[in-house]
Design a protein that fits this description.
The chain has 540 residues and is an alpha/beta fold. It is built from twelve helices and 30 strands. The protein is globular.
């Protein structure tokens, strides 16, 4: 299956050409670093591109200050992490092993060079992506979660990191490894905690981790973007790619993870160009990197709570932090979310046995237990297939009498053939059991009324689709289910224009859209031409 980048262990090294190095010399500054000098530390801005002319740079172990990897960076190689593209922070410390001479190019200048020299851009992005893949494969980064299994808030951080392809290490609370980590960092381990670098995070949350990693960018209220793209799923990220490629100043705002609901799909096999399949998170991550290469900015995790039109005809989005950002146009790409089932104590057990995504994080909680998946669509089917690798058994509960109308044929055939998966039709969960964590569920046969109580620690809800449109504050017309009306439904010439000039809608949130990843990507790419027309017509 495809992933986010190549395998560094097997990649053929492609150095930058002489003309590339000449461009770096012209744009940058030559700097000498004495042996032992740190060129980067976790949490510090990745604000420059560093090309090695002579000497040697090594990755340093955060906890021992010794060399961390057997390989080092020498002449004709370059420093960098994928966070460089978005102006984020370093996650690894790097140090000059001997006296080292480098060319340093400021980030903005380097991004301009990469846009002008695509061959150089290809090499740089391929290497940065492969480095991030190595970190993820090895669980190698500055972020350490202790007690994920015992604390719901730390599980939220694990989900945030996993879905956003942020490398982290997880350590069980009552273990020698946890005690050793606390001792190394000089902290008193009294319960679950989050460590970044060698410091304990005082207010552990996805937002605080995002700040440490530089993901939650400082946004100046006086800045005005050409387009605010609200939602970082396939449609929103595609819009970000094309907006950046067309020279628009664009900001993508996402409240949970880049990838949206599609990011929870463990394996997508019917997306063109990936014959061996790719996870939803990896697919959209690639799009995010592509958008960042063109200068599109991302802010996350940030939720838009209110959208207003100001007297100067710009739009103002108020975030859950209270910060306000402005744009000359808006693309609504907030997608949908799975509906909550009307079952007692469901909300209380969310994150403690009740889940709405099936990623590596949730799969860990399924080991040795029977997993329950509710839903009859592709996402539910993909989740069942993925969880069957770790759970002792998977039950797929389907409200209807068949999967034919709601699931792709290739997927339903695999489910039916898998001995580790049982499909139960006309079945529903009527009761949840457990204290602080889910322990069992009662399943009811809707046709016969027969009930069965099944011991489980994990139930996945993937039913229905509720659009995320409350933040639009009545500015645009919605249908009776809350989806955004566009095109002929609101007498607009563009199929993506809403009832309010300057606001466009794409992807699953748009009424009448085809709820597929490929369709969302297509709409997100095409809508930017309509945004261009609007901006040019209004003279902005």
């Amino acid at each position: 299956m495809e992933t986010i980048g190549g395998d560094l262990r097997h990649m053929q090294r492609t150095p930058l050409s002489e003309s590339h190095v000449a461009a770096l010399r012209a744009a940058g500054t030559i700097v000498r670093y004495p042996a032992g000098t740190f060129l980067s530390r976790p949490g510090k801005p990745a604000d420059r591109f560093t090309y090695v002319l002579s000497g040697e740079i090594e990755v340093v172990n955060l906890y021992t200050d010794e060399r961390h990897l057997p390989s080092t960076l020498g002449p004709s190689q370059f420093m960098g992490e994928i966070s460089f593209l978005n102006g984020g922070n370093w996650s690894m410390p790097l140090r000059a092993a001997v006296e080292t001479e480098v060319i340093e190019v400021p980030r903005d200048t380097m991004l301009t060079l990469m846009s002008q020299i695509p061959e150089m851009s290809d090499i740089v992005i391929s290497v940065l992506s492969a480095r991030r893949r190595r970190q993820l494969d090895d669980h190698d980064g500055a972020l350490v979660l202790i007690g994920e299994e015992a604390d719901r808030e730390i599980r939220r951080i694990a989900e945030f990191a996993s879905r956003n392809r942020i490398p982290y290490t997880t350590i069980a609370l009552d273990t020698d490894e946890a005690a050793a980590m606390a001792q190394t960092c000089g902290i008193a381990l009294s319960g679950p905690c989050v460590i970044f670098g060698r410091e304990m995070v005082s207010d552990p949350s996805p937002q605080s981790v995002a700040r440490l990693l530089g993901l939650n960018r400082d946004l100046a209220e006086e800045d005005v973007f050409d387009v605010l793209i609200v939602g970082g799923g396939p449609a929103g990220v595609a819009a970000g790619v094309y907006a950046g490629a067309e020279g628009l100043c664009a900001l993508v705002i996402e409240d949970v993870a880049i990838g949206g609901q599609a990011g929870t799909s463990s394996r997508i096999e019917n997306y063109m160009g990936f014959p061996t399949g790719i996870s939803g998170a990896d697919l959209v991550w690639r799009g995010e990197v592509q958008a960042m290469k063109f200068g599109t900015r991302f802010a996350m995790p940030c939720r838009v709570g209110l959208l207003e039109r100001l007297e100067d005809d710009t739009f103002c989005a108020t975030l859950d932090s209270g910060k306000r950002v402005r744009g000359r146009s808006v693309v609504v790409a907030t997608g949908v979310q799975y509906r909550r089932l009307p079952i007692a104590r469901l909300e209380a057990l969310e994150g403690a046995g009740i889940y709405y995504a099936a990623t590596e994080v949730e799969a860990r909680y399924c080991r040795g237990t029977e997993a329950i998946v509710i839903g009859g669509g592709n996402s539910a089917g993909q989740a069942a297939m993925f969880l069957s690798r770790s759970a002792s058994r998977v039950r797929l509960l389907v409200r209807g009498t068949s999967l034919a109308a709601s699931m792709s044929s290739y997927l339903s055939s695999r489910l039916e053939a898998d001995p580790a998966i049982a499909i139960e039709y006309q079945a529903e969960v009527s009761q949840l059991h457990g204290g602080e964590h889910l322990e069992a569920v009662t399943i009811r046969d809707a046709e016969t009324g027969r009930t069965e109580t099944v011991a489980t620690r994990a139930m996945f809800v993937m039913v229905g689709a509720a659009p995320n449109t409350a933040w639009l504050s009545g500015l645009v017309a919605l249908d009776d289910k809350g989806f955004v009306l566009t095109g002929p439904d609101v007498s607009a010439t563009s199929p993506f224009a809403t009832s309010h000039p300057g606001i466009f809608a794409v992807g699953d949130v748009r009424a009448g859209s085809v709820k597929r990843v490929a369709s969302s990507v297509g709409e997100g790419s095409v809508v930017i031409s309509r945004v261009w027309e609007y901006l040019n017509h209004t003279g902005r």
